[in-house]
Amino acid sequence: MKPSNTLCMLLALLLAVGAVRAIVVQLEVLVLTAPGFSGIGFMTEVMRGYGVPFTVVPVSPSASLDLTDLLWAPDGSARFAGLVMYPNLEATGYLTQAQVEVLWDFQRQTGARSVKFGAWPTNVGLDPDTLSCGSSEVPMTFTPDAPIGASGVNPAANLSSVGLWRCPGKAAPLTTCSMWASDFADAGLHPACTPTPILQFAPQQPDAAPQVAGALIKYQDGRESLAFVFDCSSYSTTCLLLGHMSLGWMLQGLVPGERRALLTVQLDDFLLATYFDSQSPAGNETSYRTTLSDLNAHMTWQQDLKTRLPDGSDFRLELPLNGGGVIGAKAGAAPQPVGNALNVDDRSCIDMPAYKDLGCYCWNVGTLACPADAPEWCRNCTKTAVNFSSQWQDPDFQLADPIATALKNNEGGIADAFFFSHHTFTHENLDNATSFDADKQLSLNVDMAAFLGLSNRSTFSSNCMVTPQISGLHNGDALAALASQGVGCAVGDDTWSFLGNPVNPHQMLYTTVEEHGYDGFQILPRFATEIYYNCSTASQNLELYNSLYRSFYGRDSTIDELMQREAERVVREGLLALRHDPHMMHQANLAILDGSGKSLAMHWVEAVVAEFAKYALWPLTSLKLDDLRALFLARQARDECALSYAIEVGTNGTVTAVTVKSSADPDGDAQCFAPLIAGGASSVTIPMAKGGSARVEVPGLSWYSPSSTA
Length: 710
Known about the structure:
Blueprint: H1 5-19, E1 23-26, E2 29-33, H2 41-50, E3 54-58, H3 67-71, E4 82-85, H4 97-110, E5 113-116, E6 126-128, E7 140-142, E8 158-159, E9 169-173, E10 193-201, E11 211-219, E12 224-228, H5 237-250, E13 254-255, E14 261-262, E15 265-268, E16 273-275, E17 287-289, H6 292-308, E18 318-321, H7 324-333, H8 353-357, H9 376-380, H10 402-409, H11 414-417, E19 419-422, H12 435-451, E20 464-465, H13 476-484, E21 489-491, E22 509-510, H14 513-516, E23 522-524, H15 538-553, H16 559-575, E24 583-586, H17 600-615, E25 620-621, H18 625-641, E26 643-649, E27 655-662, E28 671-678, E29 683-689, E30 693-696
Parallel strand pairs: 2-3, 2-4, 4-5, 5-12, 14-25, 15-24, 18-19, 20-21, 21-23
Antiparallel strand pairs: 1-26, 6-9, 7-8, 7-10, 10-11, 11-12, 13-28, 16-17, 22-23, 26-27, 27-30, 28-29
Helix pairs in contact: 2-5, 12-13, 16-17
């Protein structure tokens, strides 16, 4: 007997209800790529910045890959919440039809979304415009359908496509996402799909329709993908920005990690005078020492800048100080010399004439120690001893320095308007300094900071410092002397790879006895800039810049071009990569001398802020050096906790709970703190014991999967 239509409908309904089940999904991203393919680096860079767990699996067409074991845990939970494919392995012969079906079934059951870069238009439901293939610059913009979500990406951003090879899609979409590869090269796979353009190229002809650069694809079986028809790389600001948007969309707003954009600018040598190159004075000025009027101008500018930044921003400059500059100002203003003159040779050994004359190679930073048969000077690099006056510690000492007076009295809130840290007393290079010299250089600066009333202020850093010329970091005696006074951290220089953590750029480097002569001193990464230490005007900086880069660019650059290149570099390598390294400048860059009303530091910061605002709407903040150190230590602790996140998804798509586990070994009372960006701009931090786990209920969260809507 043939069953009735009603019975068939009831049977279908029961089967559908039976297919709907609660699931557990680990908030981890699976990156499927080709062996040896480096193009995926931009995406892993973004995820590493957040601290998102991810696994990279290179897939070879000739190797058998058991996707079922890869995708599903033995307890039936889903190992991944999102998939990234670059190249688009589904359509390029890396996966068999059976493997593709396993992948698609996983997405149907779990709601795991996929993101594809370098996709051929036909494979993602777009009609390729093969006459427009290329890599020349064609601007791209988001459409109103772009899944910006809580990513903080600026929906009005204009994105560059220069250097990114692509074949754009035509404006009219297709109805299938067809692909032919591997063992389905002849018959192909033709899933029904609906692509919605989310990123488009500017029209190349008058009255022409925009071409499609990226699309959100919804398949008839409920799967969802985000696809881009161009190649990507870490050198592209565009790709990094799309990495942020794609990550938030792929994980449905539940991002295991945190996002902070830090812009901290440190102007070394504060309180000292800087002499200009003799061939490049600033008008009649042959040197510059920060003036009180210039500091006040920067205070006013900082307050104005904060009003123009996104909510939650807090920007201020940091001034690593050399207290000996106060004595220099006193001596220069007095009719008679004040005490004994300061007499310290602050050059690096490698800058001294004898270094070249004797053929030394012992004190290049990062090199091995001298052999025993090297000339004595090469081995010892004798430096002039320190003479100093202690009269400034006397209560009757009278300040003749307007800046020191203003700081001591906190005139106009000046001591609270900037961050301050140590840069030694006289700026003596510490590469071959004795323990005595290193100890005196710091202890005298500590005394001066206390004398000026800075030490106890919340704006002052006492535990991490800037050494002169980034010196002493391979001098165990100097490091031991600094550490004995509570300074266990100093900034490095990212242009020297041996001063950075080779495994994780979001962590500090720790010194070792073998390499540095001292164990456990922390080196905090810091970016160099193209704003030079002995320049106070645009013309001075340009003269040096062009002498370095004229042959590279084939002509002289303008100051606007210099600042734009710097801004693009900082946004690309720092802010969008979620790097927290501060940026190096010097006190001479605070001068307001050229009639523009702005210092080089102001110009640089304004350029960076303007460039960043083109792409992201995130708050920009600055941290003092001790707080930066604490932030790096917190990131290190989080990484060492080896955190994994999982969500429990009910049959109606509601996230009922989030569980975080630490795979690290228990360590007494040590705690782990797991940040989670949860369903929007809000975030939560889940505490647990190291090696333990925690389950929390976070209301208002949901997770789409085709099975939950069946």
